[in-house]
Amino acid sequence: MSGTDLAGVQSCIQAYLDGLYKGDTDLLFKRAFHPDARMNAADVGGARIHWTMAEFEKLIRERESPEAAGFPRKERIVSIDFAGPDTANVKVEVLVGKRDFTDLLACIRIDGEWKVIAKTYCLTREFETKDDVFAAMV
After folding, report:
1. Which contiguous run of DSSP H or E holds residue 15?
2. Residue 38 DSSP code
3. Beta-carbon count within 10 A of 72 CB
4. Whole-angstrom Cα distance, residue 33 to residue 49?
5. Do the beta carbons of residue 82 and residue 95 sit within 8 Å?
6. Where would a tag sit more exposed on the chain, N or C end, judged by fewer CB atoms within 10 A?
């Protein structure tokens, strides 16, 4: 599609992935997410998740980052689909500590900057221990 900004979307998503792994709230909430973004999941631990960015930021600040806890880093951008020059949907697979997720990230470009405006995710696998995570990496 003409006029799309693949590098801009990739940069936004890289800030998101770096922020998740490092627990870096500046990367997540100043660089990757739009302040009005929402996060949703249908069933995580038996509950529906519908969080504002303030609620998500509180969780990130209160948990030990995967990096600090010594977990490996594993992530993959599965696809980036543009709906127009300023709108893209990104599918990401990401390991966060002992949990594997598939994230669907709706991105928009506002004033030349790409931001995640909505995140819908699914917990696809949860490991029992850190050793199990490392064993699955081989």
Report:
1. helix 6-22
2. E
3. 14
4. 17
5. no
6. C
E strand residue ranges, the chain: 33-44, 47-52, 75-84, 87-96, 99-110, 113-126
Q: Which of 21, 11, 90 is nearest to 60 (CA)?
A: 21
Count of Cβ atoms closer than 10 Å to residue 16 Cβ? 25
Q: Pull the structure tokens for residue 28.
A: 């997540």
Q: pLDDT tens-digit profile of 5-60?
A: 999 999 999 999 999 999 999 999 999 999 999 999 987 777 888 999 999 999 99
**Per-residue DSSP letter, 88:** E
pLDDT above 70 (res 116): yes
Token pair, residue 59, equals 């969780």
Place of tokens 């599918």: 91
pLDDT per residue over 72-85, tens digit each? 999 999 999 999 99
Class of the CATH-defined domain 6-136: alpha beta
